[in-house]
Write a structure and sequence with these properties.
By secondary structure, the chain is an alpha+beta fold. It is built from 6 helices and 12 strands. The strands form 3 sheets. Strands 1, 3, 4, 11 and 12 form a 5-stranded antiparallel beta sheet that branches. A 5-stranded antiparallel beta sheet has the order 2-7-6-5-10. Strands 8-9 form a two-stranded antiparallel sheet. A hairpin with a 2-residue loop joins β11 and β12.
Length: 284
């Protein structure tokens, strides 16, 4: 005798089980959400980020610093020069480390300083920061303090051709600064970073303006140049050809005087992101 197959039928009285709804997780508090830099030229006086932001990467550079104490002759000279230049180039801007008022005066509440770069921008991963600082600290022990001086006004442009700068160039102390800069090369090479320029022009920038050259497009309808993406900010093709010549004519004698131009280099500085470190050169 064959056994009948057992088949289970659902009762008409059974009700389908309800589908469980997925519960939404609460949103993270704003303090826990990592901030990402916003590439908005409107927040940075029309400047455009030339290196894309990478999480865990920090921009760094090595430099020596020249303080601008309140009432110092160099501080007053740069105020006068900025005011003169801005009368010709209305869109001229002060550098972040040299805070000026709208009238070209240095803010009394600030502690401004000039920076003389010894490296190009260096891009470090988080785990490379301490090693880089240790290497620069070791470099500082190999050089003694030395005197340097400013010699002339000049115009310099960044590698990306997005900004042009007014600067004062180094005369005395050039060889010592070059020695410090070249001492960074063995540190930068393993990091696959560029060394400084083969023929460096050591300088301290104190003002800048946006350049049109790499960001302008021409409308075929009216031939008008339009600045993108910094259309709300005035830009120039270059400084007037006679501006630097005029600044040197009027102010170079003041710049060249020992009370203004000469300073002593005693420290080397590293800025990584917002962190700044300073080490003294070897004391004799």
């Amino acid at each position: 005798m064959k056994r009948a197959s057992l088949v289970t039928y659902s009762s008409s009285d059974d009700e389908p089980a309800p589908v469980a709804k997925k519960r939404k997780l609460p949103a993270l508090a704003s303090s826990l959400v990592p901030s990402v830099p916003v590439d908005n030229p409107a927040l940075h006086q029309g400047r455009i980020r030339t290196q894309p932001h990478v999480d865990g990467q920090f921009a760094a550079f090595v430099y020596v610093s020249v303080g601008l104490d309140k009432g110092s002759p160099l501080r007053q000279l740069l105020s006068d020069v900025f005011r003169t230049a801005k009368a010709t180039v209305e869109c001229l801007q002060e550098l972040k480390d040299l805070p000026l008022t709208e009238d070209g005066e240095l803010n009394d509440g600030a502690r401004p300083a000039l920076h003389i770069s010894l490296s190009r921008p260096v891009y470090l991963r988080a785990y490379q920061r301490d090693e880089f600082k240790r290497a620069v600290k070791q470099l500082a022990t190999k050089f003694s303090p030395f005197d340097a001086s400013f010699a002339t006004f000049s115009e310099l442009t960044n590698d990306e051709k997005t900004r042009t700068f007014l600067a004062i160039e180094i005369g005395g102390g050039h060889n010592e600064l070059k020695g410090l800069s070249e001492g960074l090369t063995p540190i930068l090479t393993p990091l696959r970073q560029k060394a400084y320029y083969a023929e460096p022009r050591f300088h301290a920038s104190f003002a800048w303006a946006l350049l049109q050259s790499t960001q302008q497009v021409k409308s075929p309808s009216n031939g008008v140049d339009t600045e993108f993406p910094s259309a709300d900010f005035q830009a120039i093709p270059q400084f007037p050809t006679d501006l630097v010549q005029e600044l040197n004519r009027v102010y170079k004698s003041r710049l060249s005087s020992n009370s203004i131009s000469t300073f002593t280099v005693e420290n080397i500085h590293v800025k990584i992101g917002r962190e700044e470190s300073t080490w003294r050169l070897r004391q004799i």
